[in-house]
TrEMBL record:
Residues 48-117 form the Glutaredoxin domain. Keywords: Cytoplasm, Redox-active center. The keyword Cytoplasm applies. This is Glutaredoxin domain-containing protein. It is found in: Cytoplasm. InterPro entries: GlrX-like_pln_2, Glutaredoxin, Thioredoxin-like_sf. Its main location: cytoplasm. Belongs to the glutaredoxin family. CC-type subfamily. One of its GO terms (cellular component) is cytoplasm. It comes from Buddleja alternifolia. Pfam families: Glutaredoxin (PF00462).
Length: 145
């Protein structure tokens, strides 16, 4: 009997401190240890840094999936939260220098669209309600229609 392949929507990148490798574990998560947060954000049209079990992160993922976007979900473990938060703070500092008002402080979920920090849950929901989210996703080539 043939085994079904996991759907790309449900794959997530887990940032951990294990030796460098990239594989798919039994839960269908992509464990990508050799890539930094900066590199994952740069390589993907939409990336979401999320804490495991966070309800606000879940809402952002559902909203993006509802629009037909397949974001890369970077799940931050409790063990590596400080390390990832420091790297996120560096990304936020760069966003503040470029004039992004949404980059007040590093917090989860952190949504990156087109390699730039878009914001957290409040910014994404605000853009969705005002109608600015879909054009921004199209501009980043995360939506085709």
């Amino acid at each position: 009997m043939q085994q079904a392949l996991p759907y790309r929507d449900w794959l997530s990148a887990t940032v951990s401190a294990a030796p460098p490798s990239e594989n798919i574990n039994s839960g269908g998560e992509v464990v990508s240890d050799n890539k930094s947060v900066r590199k994952l954000v740069a390589e993907n049209a939409v990336a979401v840094l999320a804490r495991k079990g966070c309800c606000m992160c879940h809402v952002v993922k559902l909203l993006l999936h509802g629009h037909g976007v397949n974001p890369t979900i970077i799940v931050v473990d409790d063990q590596n939260e400080d390390e990832v938060t420091n790297e996120l703070a560096e990304l936020v500092t760069g966003a503040e220098a470029s004039g992004n008002a949404a980059a007040a402080s590093p917090k989860f979920p952190a949504v990156f669209v087109g390699g730039e920090l878009f914001g957290g849950l409040e910014e994404v929901m605000g853009a969705h309600i005002s109608g600015e989210l879909v054009p921004r996703l199209r501009e980043a080539r995360a939506l085709w229609l």
